[in-house]
Amino acid sequence: MISAAALQELRAIVGRDNFLDSDADKLLYSYDATPMLRQQPDAVLIPRSAETVSKIMRLANEARFAVVPRGSGSGLSGGSVPVKDSVVLLFPPMKTILEIDEENFTTTVEPGVITATLQKEVEARGLFYPPDPGSATISTIGGNVAENAGGLRGLKYGVTKNYVLALDVVLPSGELVSIGTRSIKDVQGLNLKDVFIGSEGALGIFTKITLRLLPKPDASKVILIYVESLSMVGAFVSEIARARIVPAMFEFLDHTTIRAVEGYAHIGLPTTIDALLLIELDGHPAVVEDDAAKVFEIAKKLGASFIKAAETDAEAARLKQARKSAFSALARLKPTTILEDASVPRSALPEMLEMVQHEAKRQNLLVGNFGHLGDGNLHPTCLISERDKTDVHRSELFFEKVFEMAIALGGTITGEHGTGLAKKRFLDMAAGNAQVELMRQFKATLDPNNVLNPTKMFDAATFFKSKCERRAPQSFPPIT
């Protein structure tokens, strides 16, 4: 437990109205969107400024308690789950869009700004913020930066790190630093900015973020395709690449997910097909029309049973929302929904899709699969009851196989959700011991007392291993 004196000082720092320590509040903030991970904090604090965050961090080092930053709690790797003897810092109240610079195509925001709110504001000015995580309507920009969030437009436009220009950061010590500039090109010194992006709240706390914007595309077209087998899904990926088409969005839903989405959203999707594809093209109107014609040709060549372009903006939005609702729809089927995000090179997608389907059957699990075909990021989603220990064990075996296969195919254990608590035991397997030790050294340098979001991604126990004690990176035999 954090000492009563420290809690009293924290209350004085943030103010009585910004200090929450009722049983209900501690329960409410004891978990995020990751299943089966819970830990109550000692208190929940609402900081209103960078200076307040700095004072909290200085006290954390003096009194030796942990600080866990939290956006909307929509993360899926346990990154904002409290740890023992911790306080949660709640950032959604810091939600001001400080500036939209239409001349320089930038925006500066506080960390609690909701992603979809920012997208709407800049699009009203003819600008465009491309990162589009599935949780955009509730996730915060600060959380997106902490997790380096991806999303549906990742193939063409990249992920959050491709749009971060500058960060104001409170370091674990409480020191305030500004990293990066508003300039599009900046190579002065070490690229510290990218060390903090995706650091999952373990290296620093963002209090102000400057993002790059793009001009809003002149035209877009959403195309819906029904296919009769998962093997055809892989063929589509290859054909789209050969045609040199780069969709803004290239998504798929498998049979289980289609049935769940239709039961949830009632938009008229057939529940008998093996998979559907959703492709969005954007850019100059002539290019969009030309690429759309090529997509139709590919669909006919591969024998798709149905292909249709959305005729109105409302229809296009409804189709995209169907994809975004996949997680919510699947979550209605069983008490516990485990959504993962293994990622592989595009060429390995057919093998990976087949393996996920095969392993789900082998473990006798209900699994829905959907994701971002264009960048090889799949979301196998296991539906169980956490009260059934046999179910839980089978799901663990299933995901171990999924991650092993992704690594064997040249991929990764996470394409956009982060490592957090949920997948840290797989990090050595994926990244190799030497690389993980280097990550630990970064953490130890910035946070020697291990007070900022500790135990996320990796444990701190081996900071000072000598080289002769370090194990060589693991290699894994082919999956059979």
Number of domains: 4
Distance between the termini: 48 Å
Helical stretch tally: 16
What is the number of beta strands? 18
The best one-word shape is globular
The chain-level mean pLDDT equals: 93
Structural class: alpha+beta
Strand order of the largest sheet: 15-12-14-13-17-18-16
Q: In angstroms, what is the radius of gyration?
A: 23 Å
CATH architecture of the largest domain: 2-Layer Sandwich
**Overall CATH class of the largest domain:** Alpha Beta
Beta content: 15-25%
Detailed description of the structure:
This protein has 4 domains: 4-90, Uridine Diphospho-n-acetylenolpyruvylglucosamine Reductase, domain 2 (2-Layer Sandwich), CATH 3.30.43.10; 97-215, Uridine Diphospho-n-acetylenolpyruvylglucosamine Reductase, domain 3, CATH 3.30.465.10; 217-331, Alpha-Beta Plaits, CATH 3.30.70; 334-480, Alpha-Beta Plaits, CATH 3.30.70. Helices cover 35% and strands 20% of the residues. It has 16 helices and 18 strands. Strands 15-12-14-13-17-18-16 form a 7-stranded antiparallel sheet, with helices on both faces. A 5-stranded antiparallel sheet has the order 5-6-10-8-9. Strands 1-2-4-3 form a 4-stranded mixed sheet. A hairpin with a 4-residue loop joins β5 and β6 (106-109). α8 (230-242) packs antiparallel against α13 (349-362). The longest helix is centred in the last third of the chain and has 20 residues, at 389-408.
